Amino acid sequence: MNTLELVTFLRTNILDDTGGEGVDWTTFNEDNFDSIQLRWKNEELVSNINAAINLVYKRTHPIKDMETINITTASPATYPLPTYCLEIQDVKISNGKALEKVSVDALWRNQSFFTDKNEPRFYIPDMGQNTITLYPIPLADDVLTYLFYRLPKTNLEWTSLYTYPELREEFHLPMLFYAAHLCYMKDEVNTLDPKRAASYLQLFDAEFPFVSAYGTMRKSKTANRAILYGGIGGASYGRGRGGNSKGGY
């Protein structure tokens, strides 16, 4: 389902918020929103759908990707990660040697932590700051390759109605339960409904339960099917009207 189809289903089948019979709500944007009786703007619904997609990614880790970083001899050997990076799975340098994941606590008491130079043997991921630190500091410029689970690289927008989300099509409709939850959490007289918000959150949780990174949810969703590999190749994740389709890169 593309952006328009997702918003249409959310409005008509879940929220029942179409502005009345014969109203073409698709033509309204933030500038003329007040001229019809809609509880949620189209842009709001798209924003909530994006939030729902991101949460599905965080709970199921459906796409694994691979990227590189040019590393240098600079100290400290800390490098930024893209904001869409969720969890690093493996790291290696250009000679093919895999680095060992450690916590900063494990090396913090080492007095040479900020000065020791050698071939890197360890990496410290910091997903709060979106960085990765190598230890020891590289002796020479090199290329670091890392394998990671990620979020979508781009968001849906109301100005691009025929864009497809980077998400398996079978997840499109159950994902909308969380978008509906956010809609009913909007703190306005005609939208705030904690009971409905809670009920839609329960429906979403039933489809995408919160589990650990290696929990049963991910295993069940990927059993006997190829996981998507951005940049490596994989199964298609969206098809809709007009023959538009996308596949893992």
Shape: elongated
**Residues in helix, %:** 25-40%
The figure for the number of domains is: 2
Sequence of strands across the biggest β-sheet:
3-7-1-8
> What structural class do the secondary elements suggest?
alpha+beta
Number of helices: 6
Distance between the termini: 19 Å
Mean pLDDT: 84
Instruction: Count every beta strand, where a strand is a DSSP E run of 2 or more residues.
Output: 10
* Main sheet characteristics: 4 strands, mixed
The unreliable regions are 212-249
String of helices and strands: HHEEEEHEEEHHHEEE
Radius of gyration: 22 Å
Strand percent estimate: 15-25%
Summarize the structure in words.
By secondary structure, the chain is α+β, with helices and mostly antiparallel strands. The longest helix is centred in the first third of the chain and has 19 residues, at 42-60. Helix 2 (42-60) packs across helix 4 and helix 4 (172-184) runs antiparallel to helix 5. The chain has a four-stranded mixed beta sheet with strand order 3-7-1-8, with no helix packed on it. Strands 2-6-5-4 form a four-stranded mixed beta sheet, with no helix packed on it. A two-stranded antiparallel sheet has the order 9-10. Helix content is 29%, strand content 21%. It folds into two domains: 3-62 and 152-247, no CATH class; 64-150. It has six helices and ten strands, in the order H-H-E-E-E-E-H-E-E-E-H-H-H-E-E-E. Helix 3 (104-108) links the parallel strand 4 (100-101) and strand 5 (122-126).
